[in-house]
Amino acid sequence: MTTMMERPHAVDGWTVGDLEHFPDDGLRYELVDGALLVTPAPLGPHQDAVLGLALLLGPKTPEDLKLYIAPRDWQPDDRTSFQPDVFVIRREHDQAAPITAPLSLAIEVLSRSTRRTDQALKYSTYAEHGVASYWIVDPVEPSIVAYDLVDGAYVEVGRAAGDQSVTLTQPFEVTVTPKALVSA
Question: Domain Putative restriction endonuclease, which positions (predicted)?
């Protein structure tokens, strides 16, 4: 088994090629501009929300789109690799290798260890790489904030908390009730 001590040290930053040398140890290894992000396996409320989103979005996903849940790599360049908790791509961009095309939708479910990364770093990186819609879901205080990319920047298009519902139209129409996501 490879350990961190046996891995080469990235002097000029990590690349997606370096990720092949990391162990399958339950940790999530992601890159942003060559910086390595390592997070622990998610806890129950996080996974409840991911399952709730998959159950909600799956039947509504049009045939020309494909729904994925993590772990599935999205690598828009050689120094960026994310595993969005849930994402949607155009079916024509699906491939056996990591996804490189812009996503139609990326959803990150907040956890204690990823909150700041999801709300700031991933928010700006997704916008920079043309991800059409970005949703941030909080499973602890059930809520959702949704953004659509307009002229290269995210614009808030909806939010809801608890038993409130919000209808979002991109990449397809769906009504989300945050509390229902965590009680799936």
Answer: 18-173
| CB contact at 8 A, 83 and 30 | yes
Quote the pLDDT of residue 12: 66
Specify the residue for token string 């959702």: 144
CATH number at residue 150: 3.90.1570.10
Tens digits of residue pLDDT in 133-167: 999 999 999 999 999 999 999 999 999 999 999 99
pLDDT, tens digit (0-9, with 9 covering 90-100), for 12-42: 689 998 888 888 887 888 888 888 888 877 8
Give the residue carrying structure tokens 């942003």: 32
Q: Identify whether 19 is part of a domain.
A: no
Helix (H) or strand (E) holding 166: strand 166-168
Hey, CA dihedral for 147, 150, 154, 159, is it positive or negative? negative
Tally of domains in the chain: 1
| Coil/strand/helix, residue 159 | strand
Give the integer Cα–Cα distance in Å for 108 and 106.
Answer: 7
